[in-house]
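Researcher: Here's the sequence for the chain we discussed earlier.
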Amino acid sequence: MYQWKFVDVAYIYDGSFNGLLTIVFDSYVSKTIPNRIVTSNFELDLFCEYQLIKTDDEKANRISSGILKNISYHALYTAYHMFLSNVINKEIYIVQYLLLGFQIGNKLDHLLTNDTVLKLEKTSKRVFGEFHRLCGLVRFMKLSNGMFYAKIHPDNNILELLGHHFIKRLPNENLIIHDKIRNIALLYNKKDYIIIEADNLKITSLPEEELYYQSLWKTFYKSIGIKERKNSKLRMQFMPKKYWQDLVEDL
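Model: Thanks. This is the structure I predict for it:
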């Protein structure tokens, strides 16, 4: 970094994107970057100084507007995708990336010789790639109460991205998308959506109508397959095996 310096302190935040943008704001003003950024479930280091950073929506909005005005939409989009990733210490990378952007403007989008910029660009593509892949692999099941339920096991926290996608496609249905890796669920009631902890969310049985349609789909899937043209390696390139557990069809 050019003007900013690292300080021997760890910031604790609430794990939200606005919380992280609040840290970016404070770092921009103080010209310092903490050596660690953690959420409340971190492992305590007795030899480290901690500072709680409360989310400030006004600061976060000012930083968001500043990114759009002084850097680019692409930078905000890339930082958000990095935030959704499973990269260790992603928060520090995002702070460094955005502060650098405030210094050099939209040149940031093409500065791939910088290790931090390159890391965010690669991670953003990976996160969006998983989101794009799951848009075609999510399988909804109709429950007895009329709600449509889908379970997913993504590497990255793309639940909200998927929620926006399927809400646009199915605006008149009640939806539940359950991220079983993070144990959270997105609930949509035809008007609004929320994301909640899903500790008690269990699907024990399905109605006969749903089981019937699943059976029809499996039969159709098998009937259109050509045994001689089966290419498992090619299929796994487009549909990695780790996602198969959430599909209705028998692979």
